[in-house]
Amino acid sequence: MQFIKILFWVLLLVATFIFWWTNEARSSLDLGAAVVEARVSTFVVGAFLIGFIPTWLLFRGTGWRLRRRIRTLEEAAKPAPVSAAATTRSPTPPPAAASEPEPAVSSVDSTKASDL
Prior knowledge:
Elements: H1 2-22, E1 26-30, E2 35-39, H2 40-77, H3 84-88, H4 107-115
Antiparallel strand pairs: 1-2
Helix pairs in contact: 1-2
C-alpha cells in the first residue's frame, strides 16, 4: 500500500511539473501594492495549493484528534492491574467432596409432615 501512495505522489508531482514547464504564457496579477508577473501555470498551481493545504491540514488534524480519543478510550477500557498482595495470597482450597443434596421439600409436603 505504501508503494501505491508513493507512486501516486510521484506521478502527481511529475504531471504538475510537465504542466508548469509546457505552459509558457505569462500573465500579471495586480495585488494592489505590487504587480506580480509569472507564468499562468504558476498561478494555477499556487491557487491549487492555497485551497489544498488548509483542507489537508484540517484532515490531518481531525485524524490526529480522533486517534488520541481512541487511544484514551482504549486505555480507560483496560482492566486494572492486579496488585502484588493479591498474587502472593495462597489460593483457596478446593471445595470438600460433594455430598448428596438434600431432597427438595415443598410447602405442601412440610404441612403434611407436621400433621403426622
